Amino acid sequence: MAGAAVLLITLVASAAASRDTPPRKIAVVGAGIGGSAAAHFLQQLFGPRVQIDVYEKGTVGGRLATITVNKQQYESGGASFNSFSLHMQDFVKLLGLKQRREVAGKSAIFGGEQLILEETDWYLLNLFRVWWHYGISFLRLQMWVEEVMEKFMRIYKYQAHGYAFSGVEELLYSVGEYTFINMTQRSVAECLLEVGVTQRFIDEVITALLRASYGQSATMAAFAGAMSLAGIQGNLWAVEGGNKLVCSGLLKLTKANVIHARVTSVALHNTEGRALYQVWYEKEDKMHSDFYDIVVIATPLYVGSNSNITFDGFQPPFEEFVGSFQSTVTSLVHGYLNSSYFGFPDPKLFPFASILSTDAPNLFFCALDNICPVNISATFRRKQPQEAAIWRVLSPQPLERPQLKSLFRSYYSVQTAQWQAYPQYGSRMATPLFALHDQLFYLNALEWVASSVEISAVAAKNVALLAYNRWYQDLDKIDQKDLIHKIKTEL
């Protein structure tokens, strides 16, 4: 106890030192892409001398994870990125990783009884089919998504100039003004109907795309939906060897101290100059704690979550984090697809590598696809439908045996990963804050309006810049209005 008291006195004295002094220690809770990227950005900003401890109770990578089948690894969490993922592209280059090549395959949409839209090998024929079924709805969708993404991409310029935001609403307003804020309270269907997209296109195509990405329908919030639909605008890619390599690579590059333990609480200790935080954690059934100048929470906080982190000594106390998450089950099935279920009695004639589904009442899965391992050789070819292959099935609930027998003629193995993957994006409470206290930050606040690997990286950089600007009292870099004009004048 005497040693802990001496340590606390020393840290308090350090915290009250000159404002030019960098932080001594930073804690990041969570080693998924958000936490790993935050550690990287914090080290970039504060320099190599700051000690960064990253707490992770599970496996580094979080929702970027793989499952091994027949000595090959397959993505079971975040599977791919699109051309808008600028931070992820930077990480891959920085770490000397490679983008995994895409193995071509056709898709179709299943309505519960029959396929309602089928992709062909001919681009012009695909366009004609979409136009024949839905008119110019696809073009109007593209224009809507492009307009949203053009505005959202401003965040990269703001971050390059060192600007940060203390709350999600402030960030959204800076890139899209009230349009983006309103999109968090309105549904995808509402917004698309306004721009001339037909209800049929929404029910059959938009819903299938959203179910494949978020497991939710077109009644979900429009901003999250637009971020998801942006994936159809560009080429998808993944990391050779597994997407989780980005997380482990960033932590290694940062020389972060990874502590495999469960954080139970964060306690505030008042100091004369700055706040000081005591992080309590459980490791090997024993409780430990350490003191930090800055703490970043990079794991979901909501009632019923697995985090169960309490916050002690804060006045007023934090309100409970209210919300609910969408449960998504990834099942990797090694077996023979039952193509008859989709209207193809002869499996040799089944041409599709992926099937998306509408929200028809009798459908128990959101999407399934014939997936490739994380390492692909030059001679790799996708298995034909009549061959045993690895199929990834996304569903809201674990697949029961009769459901598996519906989708597969026979199978050798089934391995599952169950995720609390995304918030449920209905109309919800006011957008949360990144800044919970002076130097206590909640990175996952941004996923309450949209969620993806790239969104987590954007949030990570925002939190790192926010911590840096607050530490050195550069308040002109926080929550500034009209940044487009400010940046133009700076240049």
UniProtKB/TrEMBL annotation:
A GO BP term here is: prenylcysteine catabolic process
- Give yes or no: UniProt keyword Glycoprotein: yes
InterPro entries reported for this sequence: FAD/NAD-bd_sf, Prenylcys_lyase, Prenylcysteine_Oxase1
Q: Which Gene3D superfamilies match?
A: FAD/NAD(P)-binding domain
GO terms for MF: prenylcysteine oxidase activity
Q: Where is the Prenylcysteine lyase domain?
A: 117-480
Name the keywords, alphabetized: FAD, Flavoprotein, Glycoprotein, Oxidoreductase, Signal
As cofactor, the record names: FAD
Signal peptide segment: 1-17
**Similarity comment:** Belongs to the prenylcysteine oxidase family.
Xref: PANTHER family: FARNESYLCYSTEINE LYASE, PRENYLCYSTEINE OXIDASE-LIKE
What is this protein identified as?
Prenylcysteine oxidase 1 like
What organism does the UniProt record list as the source? Vombatus ursinus
